[in-house]
Amino acid sequence: MAAIYSGIHLKLKSPKTSWEDKLKLAQFAWISHQCFLPNKEQVLLDWVSHTLVSFYNKKLELPDEITEKLWVYLDSIIHSRKLQGLFKDGKTITLRFSIAQVINESLSTFYTQKKLKNLSILLSCCSGILSSSPLAIVYTTKFELLVDLLCKLSHIACQQFLSEDIVSSQLFEVLQLTFGQYLLVQKQQVNANRVFGQVTKRLLQPCLLLRHLLTTGVQSQTNDDGHTQQHLGREIRNHIEALLRVAVFPPELLQSYTEELAPEKDSHKIKKGSMKHLLLPVNTIQSVLGDPNICQPAIHGKMVANSVPFLFKLFLESYNKTENHLLCFHMLTKLFQCLKISHLQGDLWNNALSSAEWSSDLLAMEQLLHLVLSSGIYNVAADRIRHKEVQFHFYQQLAQLLVNHPQGAIPAWFRCLNALISLNHLILEPDLDDLLASAWIDAEVSEPRTKKAQESLVGALFHSYTKLRQFPKLFEEVLGVVCRPAAEELRLPILPAGIKNKLCECLQDLPPSQILDVMSLILEKCRTVIIPDLRGDSDLALKFHSMSTLLHSVLFHMTSLDDSTPLPIVRRAQSLLETVQVEVIQVLFNLLKNVHTEKAELEVWAEKVGDSLLLLACTWVATDTLFGLNCRHYISPLAKANVTLADSTVDVLDFSTILPGLDVKSWKKITKLLSCVYSTSRYCTEWLMLQKMKNILLHTTYNIEPSHEILQHASAFILESGKSFFNGEEAEPWDGSAGSITSLSYPAAHWHLVVSNLPVLFPYLSLSNTQYVAGMLLKTLLVNKMQTSSDDDSSFITVEKVSKDLLCSSLLPEMCVLHSSFFSQIIQHSARVLLSIGQSIVNQPLQQLSAENIPWCDSTGPSDDPSVCWAAMEKVAQNILSLVKKRSFITLEGDHIEKLLDLLEIIAALHLDSLSPLDHTRCFLLLISLAVNTRAACSETLSLKFLITCFHLLAQLQTSRNANSSFKVFYASDVLEAVLTSMFVACETFSSIFKTSAWDDFLHSIQTFLEYYLQLMFERRQSVKLNLEKFMSFLATCQPYATNKKHSKCWSPAADQLLLVALTAQCHTLTLYLQQQHGKPQVLETRLNLLEQAVQKAGATIELCLRNSPRGQPLPVTFIPCITTLLKADSCYVHLVGLVSGESEPESPMKPDKAQKLSHSELYKQFYVQILKELDLASGSVQFLHSSLQFLTVFCSMSEMYSAQVTPVAVFHSIRKLLMGPGVQFIQDLEVQLTELITQLMEKCTTDDFCTVLRLLLEDLDVSNIWKQNSEAVLAAVTLTKVLLGCPLSGEKEKAFWFSSPQIITALVLQAKEASQDAALLPTLIVPVLETVAILLRRGEGMLSNPHHVTLVFSILITVPLDQRDYGSIFLGIHEVLFSILQCHPKVMLKAAPSFLNSFHRLVVSVMHEGRQKGNKGITDESEVILKCAHLVERMYTYIAAKTEEFTVLSPFIVAQYVMELQKVTLHPAVKKHLTEGIYHILDLCLERDIKFLNATLPAGVREVLKELYRDYNHYHKSLKQGDEKYTA
What is the DSSP-derived secondary structure letter of residue 966? Predict the structure, then answer.
């Protein structure tokens, strides 16, 4: 026996023993069982504590190295398992209080001297002490020490935040522990004044600074997991909030706050005795916030701005009751005084603040005002009657401060004003004009966030005055600001898109009388202030343009007069419109008529007056027409003037039919005057012309023959007016307002006018104009494709958006000539791209296809008598084939291919199904020519992309309505031969890319085209045999690279794969075709030899390619679908031969020698063996696995393929091995293919084989695999069990499976329990287990006879943790299991209802936790998942309520659980809606006595929640249900 060491205590005290030896001795004594010392653990802890205390009290001198080792030793003792074990055994071991003082002093040294050495060890000691209750006594029994520790830690955290040092998670964790301990101790303090004093003196400032730094995220770099640190930061902020709420605003201090905040006039009510011990908490808080010594001035200002709303929020949460509203307001004023903007007085320039100071203080003010709004402390009536409007005057002063110091670049400035409007619109009414000027009319706002805030503010003004029916009063102020003297050219447009939309919303809610009042105000201002002095004054002209824009918006978006409108309103509207026509439009018309200019550019005033005149003219015409159509009492001035269509002239500028009093001569003069201007005036002239056309078409019902010539001239005028704008310059987006058009936004406005009115214009466009529109459509699509729009706002209109909308609309195909012209433009542009290459392309197909002397747009192409177009296309087709035979190709560079790809993208956007037969054939010729007559001299990737696009579109064409039309110019076999010949030549250039995914996509696209084209050929039933024989004879001449490389220079390994694809397409379509001809023996006899030839050729080609492929290399992915198709075709051929010869019938059993009849059975078996070898090696390739599983499914479906080596169990072994591989994450994408394969295996296997499969599954499901770290085997077994449950089983196999099902359930339960304890296994294993259990329970309805086997599942649902990142999937898995039990196992529910409810309650609690309000983050992917989970909870409540007999007794228990959890959180409204609707169904089961019982037994706070819930239930749900029951039989 080893010796027992003693005397250690003396050696530790001996001065002769070196410190190094003492430490070694102490460490040995702690860990050794052979060292005997009475009360050893306490002695060693006291020794190290005493040593450290002596060192810090200067009674002992130690080197820094020894000091560090002493701290490390103390830390190791505190964190040792031995010490924790002693505590569990009940042994008393204490820590000296002096060590807590030493730790605090050491932390203070770190903070003051900014030396962070050994900080980690000290923090570790703190963590160990605070996390162990027996040791934490040194802090929890001395409140001052704990406060001091928290203060020091907060200071250190703030210091690290403000420096460049990285804040470690260790500091966050210790802070969180300290806050937790402090909050526990704080609850035990009985003297609220003492707690308040200590917190405000030591903790308030560092806590507020720390919270500010955590909130604003000053520190961006962390040395740990960012998510962990964010979580800790969130928890610390919550702790700070709880600390300050309890310490600074406890109920005991309400009297102190009341006494300090009481107005002077109420001071006599305060008891004299209380003045002696007045705490003055508000003054204390102000002093703390005003102390600048804690940090730099810049940070201090932001910290105060961040803290003021936070403290006011805590004050409201503690004291906000109806009787304390005035107290809360006074607290608001005191806290507001802490902000810098509260000290601003007089002029802005004498009290300037920096932009950053303004921004932070305005954000604080915004939050304060929103707290006032949400808490309801401002009651307008109570403030006026009881408190002499003290609150109103404060908010009014605040509004004056904001208006006098405008900050238009800061969004919060607008939001503060918006909040004041929400409080009371009268607050801002004295300064309404200045507010409108600084926030709207004179504001220079460009940044999107600021624009949004501005729009919200102006919209709030509009809505407030609309509701109050004082909109004319608001508009009077607006007009007054517009008419103020100002530099008009510096003002932004008066109605930007956002504000215009807000105005339009309000106009819909206004009565017509108020809109007419606004209109009258605008007219009065124009007539009295602006028009008299308009001539030559550009400022007045700009003001008038703003006025006309306002009038246009008001009239255009008001609710129309109708037959129900009172007659006085109609008469007034008539009068005002006459005033506009006579006193405004006519006056401006006369003013412009007399303008004479010889300059190239028009003067500003004349240009703006012209814009305003034509805008008002358009507005007048549109309004007059609308009123006339909707209101029979309205009498138009046109009717009074007796103007009819018969009076109109052919002159295009004769607008007398829509606008009286203006002659043609004057119109021509003004139009000429404004011809150099591309802005509102030109757009409005086009608009007037369009109104004229509509007016002519509208009156055709009155038997007045419309002048076709006038309509043609008008449509041509509109197009001609805008032709010169397509000059290559980039156009700006247009906001949709006619009054805001500039020379840069005019193109978008003009194009929008033309395209949106094409149904009106198109019938009267000449062919040249139609071609012009088609050309412009293509040009704008191509030009804008190269430009990136600078404005991402979807509300703006751009040329590109308009063109794209027309391209994708169903309107374009209906205008056949335009559609055909557009396609002609595409062909011509393609020909121009090829022409730019410089090669000789005079006789190229695209040049012939775009010949201008052929009427492509007029021809319909009758089949009996071919027209010129069809004859020309036949020549083009022959030219294409001729060029392929000659191997004459056009070489394309990369930029040419990019241009052609843009054109192909446009073709893809067209509705190809709507192409006429002529255009369909032209499209087919274009695509075929691009694919087979060109070669790429660029990267192989780009070349393949071009070919893929061509063949994808060609395949799409074969499914369209007029697909047969291409056969009028081509023989099918010629097309197929040309395509393959050209592609075989192209394969020479694909030397390195044919093993990439792009090459696979190319093969897939060409195979799809070939299959669709062959299928179409079969459907036509014309010359099918001839075309097929020609195509097969062509394929017969194509030899694989291995046999042909000595004789041909145009063959390559890539061509082998292309040949295989062609043969596969042929086999596939022939097989489908012959299967459809099942009942037609004559057809089968004539076609079977073709299928035989195709099968023989394909099989021989595959064998040659495989024979000459590199040894040891895996199978090319392309080969596998080919061999699968070949196997299907071979099997089909054998089966159909039997049918034709009468050897077998479909229902007769397969003959034993059928395996000998398959042409390539050895090839199939060779493939089978090779695929099984490669399955587990290629687990990362989804494409390979997809193809392999499909082959195995077809192979295993044929009984004749099975042998001693080919068995279902062997295939199952390979699949099992595959699922255990590293690429198991891809298996979920292959679940369908896997299920099909396993279904075939289970169908063909014997009962013994099936039992072997079950035994293998149970072995892999054994829990020992988890213990052996073999989780892959478990996951594979779970996946295979899930797949097996999807297979139809019958007979002995079904009995065997359900006999083993209890073992499977038990194994799954054990696996779930193990996975729940391992964080690494949880995300990968638990969800598949839950899904498998749910399916097993559903399939086991009526099969699982023992209820105990079902109740085992509840143990999974209780143990699975829900606080994981994959929350949605785990939640759904548990829900599906519960739902399966509820639906399929009602007998189990009779006994297991409590277990069911406990499991379900976990889901409810988790949804409440995840769905609580977490700030204004909007709808995110995470919130969408939570909403889905909440909806599932609602659905489950509904089903539980439907199971009345099982849950009626337990319904009060369900409600109690729900309200107890609801009381703890504040739910997101959307989540709460779902949960509330669900619990209402449970309340339907509760009787009156149940509700009384709950009210009597629940705690007080929970009882309030229940009362509110039950009140809403009676109001919203029960009454509706009773109403429904009245009409229910």
Answer: G
Residue 1214 CB neighbour total at 10 angstroms:
18
C-alpha angle with apex 206: 357 to 361, nearest 5 degrees? 15
* CA dist., res. 275 & res. 256, Å (int): 10
Distance CA 1371, CA 1364 (A): 10
User: What is the end-to-end Cα distance of the chain in Å, rounded?
Assistant: 92
Query: Please, which residues have CB within 8 angstroms of residue 453's CB and are 6 or more apart in sequence?
Result: 411, 412, 413, 414, 415, 418
d(CA 642, CA 1195): 88
> Could you tell me the CA-to-CA distances from 1081 to 153, 1086, 1135 in Å, in that order?
93, 9, 13
Distances (CA, A) of 1355 to 283, 1305, 1362, 1377: 58, 11, 14, 12
How far apart CA 212 and CA 574 sit, in angstroms, is 63
Is the per-residue pLDDT at 835 higher than 60?
yes
Phi, psi of 935 (to 5 degrees): -135, 145
DSSP class per residue in 830-888: HHHHHHTT-S--TT-HHHHHT-TTS-TTT----SSS--HHHHHHHHHHHHHHHHHHHT-
Closest residue by Cα to residue 215 from 294, 308, 303 = 303
* Residue 934: its H or E element: strand 934-936
Phi, psi of 1129, deg, nearest 5: -65, -40
The torsion angle over the Cα atoms of residues 1329, 1335, 1337 and 1340, rounded to 10 degrees, is -130
Q: What's the CA gap between 1051 and 985, in Å, rounded?
A: 7
Closest listed residue to residue 1021, CA positions, set 954, 1080, 955: 1080
Per-residue b/e over 577-604, b at no fewer than 16 CB within 10 Å?
A: bebbbeebbbbbbebbbebeeeeeebee
| C-alpha atoms less than 13 angstroms from C-alpha of 485 in its C-beta half-sphere | 0
From CA 585, how far away is CA 497, in angstroms rounded?
26
Round to whole Å and give the CA distance between 1381 and 1360: 17
Amino acid at position 1367, single letter: Y
Q: Are 1360 and 1308 in contact (CB under 8 A)?
A: no
Structure tokens at 1269: 């770290």
Element (H, E) at 892: strand 890-892
Spacing of C-alpha 828 from chain mean position: 41
**Cβ–Cβ < 8 Å for 383, 389:** yes
DSSP label of 1151: P
Which residues contact residue 540 at a Cβ distance below 8 angstroms, ignoring those fewer than 6 apart?
530, 533, 534, 605
CA distance linking residue 1072 with residue 636, whole number of Å: 71
User: Strands, E, within 1034-1118: which ranges?
Assistant: none
For residues 530 and 482, give the distance between their C-alpha atoms in angstroms, rounded to a whole number.
11
The residue to which tokens 């390195």 are assigned:
992
Q: Could you report the per-residue pLDDT of 1225-1272, keeping only the tens digit for each?
A: 556 677 888 899 999 889 888 899 999 999 999 999 898 888 888 888
Round the average pLDDT of the chain to a whole number and report it: 83
Q: Name every residue whose Cβ is closer than 8 Å to that of residue 83 and which is 6 or more positions away in sequence.
A: 41, 77, 93, 132
Distance separating alpha carbons of residues 116 and 909, to the nearest angstrom: 65
Cβ pair 520, 576 in contact under 8 A: yes
- pLDDT exceeds cutoff 80 at 891: yes
Percent of the chain predicted with pLDDT > 90: 29
Q: How many angstroms separate the CA atoms of 1261 and 1325, rounded?
A: 12
Rounded to whole angstroms, how far apart are CA atoms 882 and 845? Answer: 10
User: What is the spatial distance between Cα 1109 and Cα 1113, in angstroms, rounded to a whole number?
Assistant: 8
Give the H/E segment covering residue 968.
none
DSSP letter at 1307? H
Neighbours of 1148 (CB within 10 A): 9
C-alpha 65/C-alpha 62 separation (Å) is 8
What is the three-class DSSP state of 674? coil
- For the entire predicted model, the pTM comes to 0.79
Strand partners, 1080: none
